[in-house]
Write a structure and sequence with these properties.
It contains 16 helices and 16 strands. It binds adenosine-5'-triphosphate and magnesium ion (MG).
């Protein structure tokens, strides 16, 4: 039997509805902050990610779906959204219109070990604010993420972690300090961290291995390497968050897995999803656009995993409102013939109507219950002759008789007071 590819899933209607709810909330709240939607291709040239994410990132070193197509082009199914937006800025010449505020959503692909909250095809929504190098932009972006999570009812269950990884000078200095420290303790490091030591020592901060965690207690602190300018930048972001009353935990070990970040990095984490605790993550990436061969355009943004937010909302047993629907239940041949035009009238009036196409009244009533219909409109010869239809509210069981001309008003009334 044919199965979905490992790590991918079918989002059946119940799940899909939740995904759309989360995406629409994200889109709507980010539009309050001036973000407009952009959609970039899922297929991108491999060079885009090779140049932007860094060879030592997990994504580039082992997770990319990369292939050569029949024409010999080296392509990748995008593993994240920021690089594509930066590429679009360059190839569409958008650097004329800064600042730019863009929102995106869609599938991303990473070949990692599938588990709860971790898939090979997963979905993200994200925002990017391009062209502003002041902390006000970082603040705007974080505030937007927080507002959106609040709107989804999640702010109590999430922690905002914040750190600064400084400017290029701060980082170069820290890198050397960290390298020297770990080299002196090389044998005590995990194998993975020993491998990272030469190429990307910063990633060791991220390690979950207990041996590395132990060594990290005494390791040099990133904060001690920040230049005065980087410290001032970080302070302004923190002051801004305080003024907006957004609770934040400074996490000196927070670094992001990708090369392009600088200054602000942040993450919203949850205790409710086991190991997959990061739901929304982002930071500043002033070097990205120029690294890709474009002009020097600073940027800051975030992305969240839609799959994980949906799981989290499920975990917290949040209700999902689906829009009210109605069942039409004809009795006999004349009613069957009337059915399509009645359904059309109701739908044109904006009401959601479900038809079951076959079966007796009992069977159709069962389906009406199953689809969660708010009410059923029941009619046969008697009703057609008298021009009065039966409307049965399914939650309460109350039945009323309504002239055909008033059905729409009556159903609309039921939506507001069932
Ligand atoms: P993690 O530490 O969980 O691997 P990450 O640092 O690789 O996350 P980012 O690249 O920052 O993740 O992507 C932003 C968000 O996308 C994450 O916080 C997470 O919610 C989600 N995400 C990342 N990878 C996956 C995946 N394989 N399946 C589902 N969601 C994912
Ligand atoms: Mg990852």
């Amino acid at each position: 039997m044919l199965q979905a590819v490992k790590g991918t899933r079918d989002l059946l209607p119940g799940t899909c509805r939740k995904f759309r709810h989360v995406e629409q909330t994200a889109s709507q709240i980010s539009s309050l902050y001036g973000f407009d939607e952009i959609e970039t291709p899922i297929l991108e040239p491999a060079a885009l990610f090779l140049r932007s994410l860094g060879d030592t990132s997990d994504i580039v070193s082992k997770e990319m779906y990369r292939f050569t197509d029949a024409g010999g082009d080296d392509l990748v199914l995008r593993p994240e959204g920021t690089a594509g937006v930066a590429r679009a800025l360059i190839s569409e010449g958008l650097a004329q219109d800064l600042p730019l505020k863009l929102f995106y959503r869609g599938p991303m692909f990473r070949r990692e070990r599938p588990q709860k909250g971790r898939y090979r095809q997963f979905y993200q929504c994200g925002v990017e604010l391009l062209g502003v190098d002041s902390p006000a932009a970082d603040l705007e972006v974080i505030a937007c993420g927080y507002h959106m999570l609040q709107e989804l009812g999640l702010s109590q269950n999430l922690t905002l972690r914040l750190n600064s990884i400084g400017d290029a000078d701060s980082r170069a200095q820290f890198r050397e300090a960290l390298k020297a420290y770990f080299q002196a303790h090389r044998d005590e490091l995990s194998q993975e961290s020993q491998d990272r030591l030469e190429r990307n020592p910063l990633r060791i901060l991220d390690s979950k291995d207990p041996r590395d965690r132990k060594l990290l207690e005494q390791a040099p602190r990133l904060a001690d390497s920040l230049t005065p300018a980087a410290l001032e930048f970080f302070k302004q972001v923190q002051d801004g968050l305080k003024a907006l009353k957004i609770p934040v935990v400074i996490d000196p070990l927070l670094v992001r897995g990708l090369d392009y970040y600088c200054h602000t990095v942040f993450e919203f984490t949850t205790e409710n999803l086991g190991a997959q605790n990061a739901v929304l993550a982002g930071g500043r990436y002033d070097g990205l656009v120029s690294d890709l061969g474009g002009p020097r355009v600073p940027g800051v943004g975030w992305a969240f995993g839609t799959d994980r937010l949906v799981l989290l909302l499920d975990e917290l047993q949040r209700d999902w409102k689906s829009s009210a629907s109605f069942a039409l239940i004809p009795i006999g041949e004349r009613a069957e013939q009337e059915l399509p035009s009645l359904a059309q009238d109701l739908r044109r009036a904006g009401l959601r109507v479900d038809l079951s196409f076959s079966g007796n009244v009992g069977k159709r009533m069962k389906r009406a219950d199953k689809v969660g219909a708010l009410a059923a409109v029941i009619f046969g010869d008697n009703e057609l002759n008298a021009d009065r239809f039966q409307i049965k509210a399914l939650k309460t069981g109350t039945q009323s008789e309504v002239p055909r001309a008033q059905i729409i008003t009556e159903l609309q009334r039921l939506i507001t007071s069932p």
